[in-house]
Design brief:
- By secondary structure, the chain is an alpha+beta fold.
- The chain folds into 2 domains: about 1-110, no CATH class; about 115-250, Four Helix Bundle (Hemerythrin (Met), subunit A) (Up-down Bundle).
- It has helices at about 40-45, 120-130, 135-155, 175-185, 185-200, 210-230, 230-250, and strands spanning about 30, 35-40, 60-65, 75-90, 95-105, 160, 170.
- The strands form 2 sheets. Strands 1, 2, 3, 4 and 5 form a 5-stranded antiparallel beta sheet that branches. A two-stranded antiparallel ribbon has the order 6-7.
- The longest helix is centred in the C-terminal third of the chain and has 20 residues, at about 210-230.
- The chain starts with about 25 loop residues before the first strand and ends with a helix.
- The model has no long low-confidence stretch (mean pLDDT about 90).
- The protein binds zinc ion.
- Zinc ion (ZN) binds near residues 72 and 74.
Length: about 250
């Protein structure tokens, strides 16, 4: 996962090289002259204010991206907001320049790679979380939380437990991750960190893009660990190598 791809602004001729989610190979580039922008009505009204400065300007924009893979060429509808900020000119002087921040892209590129073994329902929730990343961080965190519940189902952690009085009680996500952690401390601890973020989102607390990128980075790792047993595989390979070479020495 390359974090800068998801925080970068775009300009009239360039967007970050997101990997195309259709062919999973080509990078998205901006279609020449496709970015169209306009100042918002509110922003136009602000011009009469005596304190007005160019950095008060707010834009909305639409643009087209295209996958560069010759046999794919998928088009991407991009939209968002923008403004004017200080930038360094060609001769090192400070000047005002337009910038644009994507709020939506359709189809939405994947923020993290998902293992082939990722169950479809977990994948669907995570794809929804990618689409909400720019426009609604709290809702994005909420989709990650739902994906965690579905992941717990997939690995066989029960949703209910019989209490001491013989009554069936629903287990919350915290309790389910605790159960999972008993058998896999490392991955369980990482899942618990993601659960806290989902809590913040659903209780209306602010979730920053940095928080979400941290979560996606942990998630990318932990999904491979749980679904692909990456550490186990590497340990097996290491063991095989060690055995082979230690035998040679003898
Ligand atoms: Zn493509």
């Amino acid at each position: 996962m390359k974090r800068s791809l998801w925080t970068a602004s775009i300009d009239t001729f360039r967007c970050p090289p997101w990997v195309c989610p259709v062919c999973n190979t080509g990078a998205v580039t901006m279609v020449k002259d496709s970015l169209v922008f306009a100042e918002t009505a509110e922003s136009l009204r602000w011009h009469i204010d005596e304190n007005w400065d160019p950095d008060w300007i707010q834009y909305t924009f639409t643009a087209w991206g295209q996958c560069q893979h010759s046999s794919c060429n998928q088009r991407f509808a991009i939209s968002g907001t923008g403004g004017v900020g200080p930038e360094v000119g060609e001769e090192g002087e400070m000047q005002w320049g337009d910038y644009f921040l994507p709020a939506a892209c359709h189809p939405m590129p994947s923020i993290i790679g998902l293992p082939d073994k990722c169950p479809d329902n977990v994948k669907r929730e995570l794809e929804s979380s990618f689409a909400l990343f720019w426009s609604h961080p709290e809702a994005c965190a909420g989709r990650i939380r739902v994906a965690l519940e579905l992941l717990m189902d997939h690995v066989g952690v029960p949703r209910e437990k019989t209490d001491s009085k013989g009554k069936e009680r629903l287990l919350d996500l915290h309790a389910r991750i605790d159960l999972y952690t008993a058998g896999n401390v490392e991955a369980g601890t990482q899942l618990m960190a993601l659960k806290w973020l989902g809590n913040a989102g659903s209780h209306g607390n602010a979730v920053s893009k940095t928080d979400l990128l941290d979560a996606f980075e942990v998630l990318e790792h932990v999904l491979l660990e749980i679904l692909d047993k990456r550490s186990e595989k590497v340990a097996m390979l290491a063991k095989k190598l060690t055995e082979k070479h230690s035998k040679k020495k003898k």
